[in-house]
Specification:
heterodimer; A: alpha+beta; 4-stranded antiparallel β-sheet; 2 helices; 4 strands; 40% helix; 27% strand; B: 146 residues; alpha+beta; 2 domains; 6 helices
């Protein structure tokens, strides 16, 4: 599993000459995500145990949470550029 | 023409590598040749197969409209893989609804049969995928992995 994205760059340029660049340090949210992830993981383990005891077919909440976090980490490197005749927007996840 | 260049062009002609991969290989060949021209040795040492069969890292979607609008999206293959793995964990009840809804819109894809081995095979084969759409009005859409 790779590290989650650390920075999101957002750039918006318009025909009028306005150019906005945002550098979002989302690595500051890592501790919060870690805490929420651990709490969610505890709930997911309990939920899976209950679902398994009840004989339900689906009891993979823990796996879903882990893979969702892995997907979050895999988002690093995503880049989206949209440009029209009047404006341009670029988003990069690093 | 050198043996290496001939091999790369043969692989391209046989459809085993894409034009982009061939270009990268030829660039690497030129770089290595210029660096080691004096030695006279082959630019690609050993079997180039690992280089050729390397998994793609990104999925690119490029849309170029005639009116000047452009969309350029680069998605890490790791994200595609993670997404597919998540798909295989969707609860059966929700999956039934998704499948029914997709069937209504003409897409009868059954994700319940998607196994991890299938996902790996799918990702491996993505390197050979290339979609090029040229519309009548000149709009172009290109989807490929590199």
């Amino acid at each position: 599993m790779s590290l989650p994205p650390a920075i999101v760059n957002l750039s918006v340029a318009t025909q009028t000459g306005r150019h906005v660049r945002l550098w979002l340090p989302i690595f500051l949210l890592w501790p919060l995500v870690l805490i929420l992830g651990l709490i969610g993981l505890a709930f997911a383990v309990v939920a899976d145990a209950v679902l398994a005891l009840l004989g339900r077919r689906f009891h993979h909440c823990t796996l879903v949470l882990i893979r969702a976090l892995a997907a979050l980490g895999a988002a690093r490197g995503t880049a989206i550029n949209v440009s029209t005749q009047t404006s341009a927007v670029a988003v990069t996840v690093e | 023409m050198s043996d290496d260049r001939t091999r790369i062009l043969s692989l391209l002609a046989a459809g085993k590598i894409s034009a982009d991969e061939a270009e990268r290989l030829l660039d690497a060949l030129e770089t290595q040749k210029s660096a080691g021209a004096a030695s006279g040795a082959s630019a690609i040492k050993g079997d180039p197969e690992p280089l050729i069969t390397a998994l793609p890292k990104y999925l690119y979607v490029k849309v170029a409209a005639v009116n000047g609008d452009n969309v350029d999206v680069k998605i890490p293959i790791a994200l595609v893989r993670s997404g597919l793995k998540l798909t295989s964990l969707i609860p059966p009840q929700a999956m039934d609804q998704i499948s029914a809804s997709m069937a209504q819109h003409g897409m009868s894809v059954d994700f319940t049969n998607l196994k991890p081995a299938d996902i790996d095979e799918l990702i491996t084969n993505l390197r050979e995928m290339e979609v090029n759409v040229d519309s009548q009005n000149g709009d172009k859409v290109r989807v490929f992995c590199a």
